[in-house]
């Protein structure tokens, strides 16, 4: 029997506000445990929540970017459950009427096609605290600094059919929230995390199978591995006569498997009811228009513009718009050097490779866009060759100065004097009569050998185009 996976994702994006969603406590990451939890976050008696307007603004920003419905009126509810890191005994969330309704997100598949994934809703809620298990012999510690941090939970339709599609959707949403400036997307710090609902069904069957929820996946790699394992687990279980149980499961990255955590709760288990301390949230058309005016150019629009205005292949445009920072960097380099294709090749190649090797974010790069543009200008005006430029770039990366300073200090300026190059060509041909005879007998691949000899003699400084032209004249003459 052939099986089909049915996957829906719940993405939790911590909103990049300075204070919490219902209190004035700081949301800064990394503070000493329990130093950023005020009386409201701790659920002390008599404390009243006050909604953070910026969190609402960020939610509307996402709704507009997803071409989604933004509710004129939405309601906060209490989601009741007991857990040590939830001091109030309930979480303030949205249930029946979320701030963002149905929308969509288009993703790119491996074969180059696009698929539209429906977004069911996005609702505002507060984050819980954090349980700490290391360093407490036989006990757990509770850090409530995170309690009350504003979250936007983004729920997809169950329209993803593979782990790779799920990762593509998650990456696209991750890029979008960063473009919008509403979430820093730091997955290691828990700013962007994922719950995946996974079920399987026979191909052709319309009815969904029983799903399992995989909780707190905080990397793209873990999402793919966890979903793939869960799909295989469910298929094997059913084919062996078993039954999939609706439950919450955790992914163990060391063992590469999911394991049962608890039975999956239904909505009625949480006893949702409207929060009596918070009035319904009313969003006016004027407020929505104000937020719409703040929207930056979105990734898909930027990608289309890069392909159109700069003449870039669709693949290059996609890579360069994968993050707002990378897109801005590329545009600055392209503007500064006047050659968009050359800029794209260098930003995607040498520059991105250096960042990855050093484990740096683009904002921490030792070579800024203006400096890289300065280097590429020297390729364009033929001061140096592309090969020499790589040496110059490495020196710039190590802090030896800008391109012009490195070229001058190391004496790397390209040799473009035709007479000098002709002399080196003649010398290379005279020194290798056997290779000359073989070339003229039809072994034309030896052109590369002669080019190498000339470039070696020039210390790599001879203009490659001139070397090839002069060599061809001499060898074919």
Automatic annotation (TrEMBL):
HAMAP family associated with the record: GatB
Organism: Spiribacter onubensis
NCBIfam families in the record: gatB, PRK05477.1-2, PRK05477.1-4, PRK05477.1-5
Reaction catalysed by this enzyme: L-aspartyl-tRNA(Asn) + L-glutamine + ATP + H2O = L-asparaginyl-tRNA(Asn) + L-glutamate + ADP + phosphate + 2 H(+); L-glutamyl-tRNA(Gln) + L-glutamine + ATP + H2O = L-glutaminyl-tRNA(Gln) + L-glutamate + ADP + phosphate + H(+)
Domain Asn/Gln amidotransferase residue range list: 328-475
UniProt record similarity statement: Belongs to the GatB/GatE family. GatB subfamily.
Name of protein: Aspartyl/glutamyl-tRNA(Asn/Gln) amidotransferase subunit B
Role summary: Allows the formation of correctly charged Asn-tRNA(Asn) or Gln-tRNA(Gln) through the transamidation of misacylated Asp-tRNA(Asn) or Glu-tRNA(Gln) in organisms which lack either or both of asparaginyl-tRNA or glutaminyl-tRNA synthetases. The reaction takes place in the presence of glutamine and ATP through an activated phospho-Asp-tRNA(Asn) or phospho-Glu-tRNA(Gln).
């Amino acid at each position: 029997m052939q099986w089909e996976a049915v996957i829906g994702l719940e993405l939790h994006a911590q909103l990049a506000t300075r204070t919490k969603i219902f209190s004035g406590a700081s949301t800064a990451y990394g503070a000493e445990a329990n130093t950023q939890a005020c009386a409201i976050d701790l659920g002390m008696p008599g404390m009243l929540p006050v909604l953070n307007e910026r969190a609402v603004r960020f939610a509307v920003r996402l709704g507009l970017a997803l071409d989604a419905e933004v509710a004129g009126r939405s309601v906060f509810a209490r989601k009741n459950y007991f857990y040590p890191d939830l001091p109030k005994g309930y979480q303030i969330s949205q249930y029946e009427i979320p701030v963002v309704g149905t929308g969509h997100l288009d993703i790119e598949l491996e074969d180059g096609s696009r698929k539209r994934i429906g977004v069911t809703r996005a609702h505002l809620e507060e984050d819980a605290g954090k349980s700490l298990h290391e360093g407490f012999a036989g006990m757990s510690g509770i850090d409530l600094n995170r309690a009350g941090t504003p979250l936007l939970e983004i729920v997809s339709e169950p329209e993803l059919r593979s782990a790779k599609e799920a990762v593509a959707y998650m990456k696209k949403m991750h890029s979008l929230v960063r473009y919008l400036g509403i979430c820093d997307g730091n997955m290691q710090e828990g700013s962007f995390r994922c719950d995946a609902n996974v079920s399987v069904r026979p191909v052709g069957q319309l009815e969904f199978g029983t799903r399992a929820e995989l909780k707190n996946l905080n990397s793209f790699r873990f999402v793919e591995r966890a979903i793939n394992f869960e799909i295989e687990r469910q298929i094997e279980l059913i084919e062996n006569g078993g039954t999939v149980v609706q439950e919450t499961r955790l992914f163990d990255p060391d063992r590469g498997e999911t394991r049962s955590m608890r039975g999956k709760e239904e909505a009625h288990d949480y006893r949702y009811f409207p929060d009596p301390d918070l009035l319904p949230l009313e969003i006016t058309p004027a407020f929505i228009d104000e937020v719409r005016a703040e929207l930056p150019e979105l990734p898909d629009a930027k990608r289309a513009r890069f392909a159109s205005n700069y003449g870039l292949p669709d693949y290059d445009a996609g890579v360069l718009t994968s993050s707002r920072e990378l897109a801005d960097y590329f545009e600055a380099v392209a503007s500064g050097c006047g050659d968009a294709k050359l800029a794209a090749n260098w930003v995607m190649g040498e520059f991105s490779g250096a960042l990855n090797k050093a484990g740096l974010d683009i904002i921490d790069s030792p070579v800024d866009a203006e400096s890289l543009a300065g280097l590429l200008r020297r390729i364009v005006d033929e001061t140096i060759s592309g090969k020499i430029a790589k040496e110059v770039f490495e020196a710039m990366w190590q802090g030896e100065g800008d391109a012009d300073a490195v070229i001058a200090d190391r004496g790397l300026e390209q040799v473009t004097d035709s007479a000098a190059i002709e002399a080196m060509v003649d010398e290379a041909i005279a020194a290798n009569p056997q290779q000359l005879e073989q070339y003229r007998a039809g072994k034309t691949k030896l052109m590369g050998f002669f080019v190498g000899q000339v470039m070696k003699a020039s210390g790599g400084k001879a203009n490659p185009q001139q070397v090839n032209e002069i060599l061809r004249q001499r060898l074919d003459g």
